[in-house]
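User: Second chain of the day. Same drill as before.
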Amino acid sequence: MSSLEERDVGVAAAPGSSSAGLGVGAVVAAVEAVAGVAAMQDEVGMRRDGPEADTDEPPKKRVKIPEGESGKLEERLYSVLCCTVCLDLPKASVYQCTNGHLMCAGCFIHLLADSRLKEEQATCPNCRCEISKNLCCRNLAVEKAVSELPTECTFCLKQFPRSSLERHQKEECQDRVTQCKYTRIGCPWQGPFHELPAHESECSHPTKTGTELMGILGEMDQSHRRDMQLYNTIFSLLCYEKIGFTEVQFRPYRTDDFITRLYYETPRFTVLNQTWVLKARVNDSERNPNLSCKRTLSFQLILKSKVNSALECSFLLLKGPYDDVRIKPVIHHHSFSNDANETDYVPLPISDSVECNKLLAAKNINLRLFIFQVQK
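Assistant: Same format as last time:
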């Protein structure tokens, strides 16, 4: 018999019990291979269909992806849809440059504000093309895609679509931080929502004496009185005989110093038969305000007319009719005369640096000025 026929017989006899040791080893290897493939298929099937999630295990404990394999779709989308500046997923509006690079609203406004402070043209941090409110547009498709991506609740660590996360954290999550209903009488307790009924049934504040409660309520009343005093003052000013208001537009300018500084000034305007001008400055004319993350605006009111006698006025700045910047009203007083025709610089009462960047990013700052002439 030829050697080829001997090899054929050896292969054919391998499944039998009387085969050589080499044939038995091949059978064992084949069985182990089939078992390994079956186990892999079961594991893949469990990943696709997925057993019921263990609610006690936080979602952060994910199975490590072996090297060479792609991650989950949402994990890959995170790197595609993230902001090119802060490298985080946008939480609200998404803007794109003319080449399609994405920026979240906060970073986009910050870039425009920085360019205003440095007297430069704002550019995309990726491709260096020019960006502005006219050149860039919102990407609604990316905004909707990001809103559907899963994100983790900071309280219960479960995952929800970003579009429903806010409602879940405010109304549905059993682990959200809440306060005792007796907070108004001084209870400092804060804890998970599911522990609230047990705490309120044992809270000691409802059993406190009237004397103890009066001290707590007194502190709360002081804060309430300050707010009411402001609004009552505004209503009192509305009773004055001479009241004037106008929309003012601050325009950016640069000083003539060796190191130029940005400041804002309005054209002359007339209120109460007098001519006025408003000036504003950034961070109290700090040398390099673009290097600071904390940004403020302050302004002063200047009387340009000549007056025969002192003109005592109250004034305040509010947001314009078409702006969305948040300004808390603050009333200022000054007695104007020919020798004291300028007020000191007073802070523009905006809530934070984000609101300040909104104003700086705009080509002009539009606000509304009220002036009340005090009766004599």
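The two ends are 133 Å apart (CA to CA).

User: Great, on to the next one.
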